[in-house]
Automatic annotation (TrEMBL), chains A, B:
The name this protein goes by in its record: LDH2 family malate/lactate/ureidoglycolate dehydrogenase
Assigned keywords, A-Z: Oxidoreductase
Organism: Labrys wisconsinensis
Family note: Belongs to the LDH2/MDH2 oxidoreductase family.
């Protein structure tokens, strides 16, 4: 008997949606986070798939997310800014609400920004830049998280793992997409090594006294480090400024102060910028989408990979054969559905 | 007798301006590049200071820059995009021309972009995000260069050193500014180690066969590597897409194909994005400039530095005491002024 079951994408989405309805979320909240969790599981992006349900349920149970929030678009002051207030709910329904006006504004203005405020956040940003790429737009997305990363030269958590994502549309195939933490590693990776009793690679973290450490426990009590030394630390700081302070929302330090734990999902905002390649390239020789393919071919032609390639392969597999889930994962889904918030 | 002379900022600017006029540049070209070269020298940013004059003169002598170019603003199609055509001249006069409408558009739209096309480029991008910060705007600037960097997992030059700069305004003091190459090192640093007969640090470069090397000669014949591994490589690729292909201008590979050498300055475009923190934060609690100071204090408070701090200290010194130049540098300036293009 196989230890893995295959579930259709739509079947898994319905099940995750039902879990969150049972846990008390309204339809708009449950629908949006079910879509994003299932998209991650479909892409074999396990760290953001059904694994995240438990954390979301804990966050709901702790009263740290508004279960019946209905996000609202705010009246525009500036023509290239769209503002979506998540009303204390998850960021994803606010993104879904803000996406159409963001696309419209980017096409009209050439570029535009979507600001999401007062959101609880846990999802990967690639889904958002992919949604823009489906509309033929390039996109950048970034947000704080909670303070777990020391700035280069410092010794205490201040920055978040602050993800940074970019997407570029491609015709007839998945977009060029990257999405990464601006810390060397994700906090979850350190947690996994701790559970496995394995040391961390060098350069991931410092202990509570600011000394380099490879001990996961010491790292979790200390601080993670930025990718790429001072350059990554600068980008992480930029994300605090643009996607925290500039949009009038919490920094990673503020989010942690408010929550006082990293076991629940943090509240903060998010910044998404959409670019119309047609508007930018207008009047210049060459089609930007066609020219980009030449660049991608040159990357692939020397044996390098495009980011997200493995994720898109997994997606194609899931679409053809269903999403593989372990028996343990299936049993957990059943338990979540049966017991609701009593399961966490 | 001292080996160093001190020259007032304005005196050096006049001298550099006169050198470029003697070399055949018109007033708008000579004025803008003299300002940016002297700003770098004033900030002890030697790699972009008077050291760059020789390269600029060689580029002029080779006929690779239009000496009498007058940049032009193009008619707007999209309200948040400003386009400045450098007309084959240096990028800096086009930036100076595009700055006021960029500031105006960013204030009106919330964010806006300046596209510079058909420019010869050699200057640091911090000057541009600082100019935005002086107007109370946050800014991002990026551009390709020429293909000298292999994408992670590849073995041949394809990406440029593609600088990425960010600025955030601060009241009563210099802005928060970073500006770095998305390669591990600048090409000039490898060149300096080659001249000194010293090996490169590990991880900077690969040889022509794609193998890691610490030999500067082998590195110059091979390819440089991106900072931060695949993450930096992805950001370098993003810059090719946004600030090369999207704006209808050359990629780093295209710039090298056209020039066939890295000893002259390349032609390409540039993308600058300006954000109005007031427009983004409007209606939200807290003043974004004040809140940013809390973040900067937290960085400094744990012994970490803000990027550009050393540069601003040098600037203050130069403003008080003049710009220190070696006797050799002074003699070179005299020779440039006397012989014009005959000096290179």
């Amino acid at each position: 008997m196989s230890d893995t079951v295959s579930l259709g994408i739509e079947a898994l989405r319905e099940r995750v949606d039902a879990i969150f309805r049972k846990a008390g979320l309204n339809a708009v909240q449950a629908g949006a986070i079910a879509r994003v969790i299932v998209a991650a599981e479909r892409d074999a992006c396990k760290s953001h798939g059904v694994y995240r349900i438990e954390g979301a349920l804990r966050t709901i149970k702790a009263g740290k997310v508004t279960a019946d929030a209905v996000p609202e678009l705010l009246t525009q002051q500036a023509p290239a800014i769209v503002k979506a207030d998540a009303k204390g709910g998850f960021a994803n329904p606010a993104f879904e609400l803000g996406l159409p006006p963001l696309v419209e504004r980017a096409r009209t203005c050439g570029l535009a920004a979507l600001v999401i405020n007062d959101a609880v956040h846990f999802s990967a940003l690639w889904a958002e830049v992919e949604a823009l790429a489906e509309q033929g737009l390039a996109g950048l997305a970034m947000c704080p998280s909670y303070a777990t990363v020391a700035p280069t030269g410092g010794n205490r958590p201040l920055l978040g793992t602050n993800p940074f994502a970019f997407g570029w549309p491609r015709q007839g195939q998945p977009p060029y997409v990257f999405d990464f933490a601006t810390s060397v590693a994700a906090r979850g990776e350190i947690e996994l090594l701790r559970r496995a009793g394995k040391p961390l690679p060098e350069g991931w973290a410092i202990d509570a006294d600011g000394r380099p450490t490879t001990d996961p426990e010491a790292a979790l009590a200390g601080a993670m480090l930025s990718f790429g030394g001072h350059k990554g630390s600068a980008i992480g700081t930029m994300i605090e400024l643009l996607a925290g302070i500039m949009i009038g929302d919490l920094t990673s330090a503020g989010a942690l102060d408010l929550l006082r734990t990293t076991t629940l999902f943090p509240s903060h905002g998010e910044l998404i910028i959409a670019f119309s390649p047609q508007a930018f390239a207008g009047g210049r020789p060459g089609n930007p989408l066609g020219r980009a393919e030449v660049l991608f071919e040159a990357i692939l032609g020397q044996g390098a990979r495009l980011p997200s390639q493995r994720r898109f392969l997994a997606r194609a597999r899931s679409e053809a054969e269903g999403i593989p889930l372990s028996r343990m994962e299936m049993e957990q889904l059943d338990r979540f559905l049966e017991l609701g918030l009593g399961s966490v």
